[in-house]
Amino acid sequence: MSTFGHLTKERDTPRTLVVIFLRGAADGLTLVAPIVDDDYHRLRPRLAVKAADAVPLDGTFGLHPKLAALEAAWKDGDLAIAHGAGGESDTRSHFEAQDLMEHGGPVAGGWLARFLRARGPVQSPLAAVALAPTLPASLSGAPSAAAFSSLDEFSLMEGAEKLPSFPQQLRRLYEAESPTMKTAAANTFEALRRIEGIDRKASPEHGAEYEANDSFARGLRQIALLIKADVGLDAASIDLGGWDSHFTQQTLLAPLMSRLANGLAAFRQDLRPRMATTTVVVMTEFGRRVGENTAFGTDHGRGSAMFVLGGDIRGGQIIGGWPGLQPDTLEGPGDLPVWNNYRNILSPILARHGTPDSLPDIFPDYELSPANLYR
Amino acid sequence: MSTINRREFVVTGVGAVALSAAIFKSVQGWLGEAGQYLGTNLARPLHAPLTPPSATDLDPVAHLLNRFTFGPGPGDHARVSAMGTEDFFNEQLEPDNIDDAVCDRAIARFSEAWWEPLGEAYEEDDEALTPLLRRVTLLRAIYSKRQLLEVMCEFWSDHFNVDPGKGDCRFAKIDDDRNVIRALALGNFRNMLRASALSPAMLWYLDGRANTRLTPEEKPNENYARELMELHTLGVHGGYTQIDVMEVARCLTGWTVLAKKDDGFSGNLLSPTKDRAKVVFRQEAHDDGPKRVLGQDIPAGLGEEDLDRVIDIVATHPSTARFLAGKLCARFIADEPPAVAVAAVEQGFTKSRGDLKTTLRALIATPEFQQSAGAKFKRPIHFIVSALRATNAQTDAGRGILSYLERMGQVPFGYPTPDGYPVAAEAWHTTLLWRWKFALALSNNKIAGTSIQRDKLTNALGGDDALMASVLNRQGSETESDAALQSGDRLALLLASPAFQHC
Q1: Which tens digits make up the pLDDT trace of B318-334?
Q2: Does the pLDDT of residue A160 top 70, yes or no?
Q3: Are residues A40 and A48 in contact, defined by beta-carbon separation less than 8 angstroms?
Q4: Distances (CA, A) of B2 to A72, B29, B120, B177, B468
Q5: By the CB < 8 Å criterion, does A118 face chain B?
Q6: A49 contact partners, CB below 8 Å, separation of at least 6
Q7: Structure confidence by residue, pLDDT tens digits, B439-458
Q8: Number of neighbours of residue B446 by Cβ within 10 angstroms
Q9: CB B334 within 8 Å of CB B319
Q10: Residue A349 and residue A84: Cα distance in Å, rounded?
Q11: Which chain B residue is nearest to residue A104, measuring alpha carbons?
């Protein structure tokens, strides 16, 4: 039976947007290092990524070696990077910056939620999921959004309460209803069938390997399973926290970067053909001060880096160039400024995912200047 | 519930001795009724007449209970049948006369929700306030005997939607809920509209606080003016123009809400409790020239009186009566209500000059209302609350319940845009999966913070068939009976059934 079939013209291709939030303010200058900039090495004498160690991207930047797993995506043109990315909050407060960014400005409700509402009535009980104990602010006010930790939570019956005839009897009652109720129930049963048909033990496809003991990788794997099961997933949210590197930054960030890059590489490999309709966005609330501190760390700054991974994007590009690190370029106490507002990176993606006419509603009170992310 | 002001309680005592005595007495009182603050033992005792409905279709009593309460609990049908629908409706229209001890007990420990003045709320953890308001709202819907009031509060919370996620709304929504929605839900529409216009939460939410004209070049902020006419009164096709929006915005320039520490314009520090979040009119920020709103002239120089002129014009505009009648009928009769019913309600509203009790009486008197039994699809909050009421559940209305509402997309006060949660069934059809899961979880006591006594309830009602009639609000059909029996979990199947999704 064909379900979720009554798609409107704006959403003739089912697409999934995956948002990864790096909580704690990730250092963009470590993730994506301006390796040819002398000021960078001067201001970060102990912490700068050495040009020889970096994975070269273009003439200016190199990925931190712990992100080497992303090199293939870059070379295939599936990865775009925006440096100097961030929001307008200059309080350098984690809470306030995350809050503003997830809401999409000083507005009520989350930007991801407004995106979902802009698409019209949701077609699936699993239109949006978050791998989290509670919903992130970006999904507040969503038409339907489930925080979860295991796919089992989407089965009709979990654990001991297995009742073999329950679904059948329920179906029997809904069969006698009006056509709209009958369809709603049939769609729900079909979604359940697809979820319950997911083989949780099956190996990832195309030789992809997720780190078994990494909760972030496990989360990405579950999202990939939902995408492949065609349950009508429009958006998924997952966090990777712990980026607040005031002390001994290298020790702190190295394992996080490995988890991020390996997880993303496995996800991309696992989904292979479906990456054409899947977009992954990696964002963080703000970056870190350019000058390192005495504790081998960095303090709260402004601009950071944002990653966009997808099969149909114009990848292999650094969006928005590089202004250098001269004193008159830096902001406040010596911070990388923001020249790529996160909305300008997100808006072309949201347009591609079915809401080209609703961008001013999704990001109100902001003059959008969407980045050139697509061919 | 009396209002509590911690600061005044502490500071303005008539002396240390008297104060100590007062505190001692209070502590004694608290210790004596510890249970009162724990929100336990909220389920109703099952000794009243519990006879469930005997009709095979929804009878008029069941219909009224379905639409104007959050669903009947055990014994409600028997009680309303005994007193008659008219007396019940009259009783519900005077909520102040209804003893509500159980509900008071359920919400006693969330006293932040009724602290006054609003400035007090700013001393609270802002992250905690909105979840607290959500819990109090759900607990009232579940346990209050003033059910019509709670249903209408939900209606007006959507109509005058304020999402606490914006700016100081996270503090001010508590005050809006108390002083606009709850205080006036069964009053006069014009009064509620005026209160909403001057509610600190609304001034934040729709940017009225930033609607100023300090220089001739400054353009007023039209956000509130537009929604006032589009959503609160005339409706989008109600006959106003862009010029009217701009003129209303001009009329309302100068009204603002004082900020947290200073007033935001003179640099004067504010008294935290007396001035914080206070609504004031700034003459110097007001455009005092002549205006023309919806064909009526408002002369120059009226100052703050412009507000009342505008409220009068929009509240008494014929489009407003029609628009509100349409919304009430869509909520209480059918998604697409018959025009004749809308006309009757419109007339009730107009003739009573916006008296909401009269308007509701006009609505239930329409034949279309009587003929619409079972035609509405419950929204998620209605579904969850009616299931808890039908099963006589004990609940803290905490995370366990809220997580289901999140999945179904109807967290109380969680709608981001000013139009409020949609009312038509189509918006909610994909929530069936979570309803079914909720039914199974509730029936098997697998929801954190919530418990039911299934066997005790079944026995008190008089067996499985009586349970079915009590839950479905009518006798079960043969098919329902058989399906419940075969399903392996009667109660869950009934709560998950199509009949229980409708009202």
Answers
A1: 999 999 999 999 999 99
A2: no
A3: yes
A4: 67, 16, 15, 16, 40
A5: no
A6: A30, A33, A35, A62, A64, A65
A7: 999 999 999 999 999 999 99
A8: 17
A9: no
A10: 18
A11: B166
Domain housing A140: 16-149+207-362
CA B389 – CA A290 distance, rounded (Å): 58
Mark B185-223 as b/e (b = at least 16 C-beta within 10 Å). bbebbbbbbbbbbbbbbbbbbbbbbebbbeeeeeebbbb
| B487: chain A residues, CB-CB within 8 Å | 163, 165-166, 169-170
What is residue A72's DSSP assignment?
H
- How far apart (Å, rounded) are the C-alpha atoms in residues A194 and A168? 16
Q: What is the CA radius of gyration of chain A?
A: 22
Tokens linked to B372: 């619409």
Cα-based torsion angle of the residue sequence A95, A96, A98, A100 in order, rounded to the nearest 10 degrees: 160
When divided into structural domains, chain A yields a total of 1
C-alpha A153/C-alpha B384 separation (Å) is 19
- Cβ-defined contact of A188 to B486 (cutoff 8 Å): no
Residue A158 forms part of a structural domain: no
Cα–Cα distance measured from residue A371 to residue A340, given in angstroms and rounded to the nearest whole number:
8
- DSSP assignment string, A198-238: --TTSPPGGG----TT-HHHHHHHHHHHHHHTT----EEEE
pLDDT digits (tens, 9 = 90+) for B274-319: 777 889 999 999 999 999 999 999 999 999 999 999 999 999 999 9
For position B1, what pLDDT does the model report? 40
Per-residue buried b or exposed e for B342-362, using 16+ beta carbons within 10 Å of the residue's own CB = bebbbebbbebebbbbbbbbb
Give me the CATH number covering residue A133.
Answer: 3.40.720
Is residue A269 one of the residues assigned to a domain?
yes
Q: Are B212 and B285 within 8 A, CB to CB? A: yes
- Please list, in sequence order, all residues whose beta carbon lies within 8 angstroms of the beta carbon of residue B12, skipping any fewer than 6 positions away: none
Query: How far is A64 from A47, CA to CA, in rounded Å?
Result: 11
Measured in degrees and rounded to the nearest 5, phi and psi for residue A33 equal: -90, 135
Cis peptide before A370 (omega within 30 of 0): no
Q: Which of A108, A141, A173 sits opposite B498 (nearest CB)?
A: A173
| Cβ–Cβ < 8 Å for B3, B118 | no
At which residue do the structure tokens 């900020």 appear?
B259
Is residue A195 a part of any domain in this protein? no
pLDDT value of position B452: 98
Which residue is associated with the tokens 């009342």? Answer: B308
Distance CA B157, CA B136 (A): 14
Cβ neighbours around B19 below 10 Å, total: 15
CA-to-CA distance for A150 and A147, rounded, in angstroms? 10
Residue with token string 């009790």: B357
Beta-carbon contacts of B81 under 8 Å, excluding residues fewer than 6 positions away, are B51, B61
Q: What is the ipTM of this complex?
A: 0.88
Report the residue from A125, A165, A183 with minimal CB separation from B431: A125
What is the DSSP track for A335-356? B----EEHHHHHHHHHHHTT-T
The closest CB to that of A141, out of B415, B426, B489, belongs to B415
A56 lies in some domain: yes
CA dist., res. B62 & res. B475, Å (int): 11
Beta-carbon separation of B414 and A140 below 8 A: yes
**CA A297 – CA B346 distance, rounded (Å):** 67
pLDDT value, residue B267? 66
A192 touches chain B (CB under 8 A): yes
C-beta of residue A220 within 8 angstroms of C-beta of residue A210 = yes
φ, ψ dihedrals at B372, nearest 5°: -105, 15
Q: Which of A27, A32, A82, A31 is nearest to A320 (CA)?
A: A82
- Using CA atoms, how far residue B231 sits from A243, B133, B223, B228, in Å, is 44, 24, 11, 6
Q: Contact, B279 vs B203, CB < 8 A?
A: yes
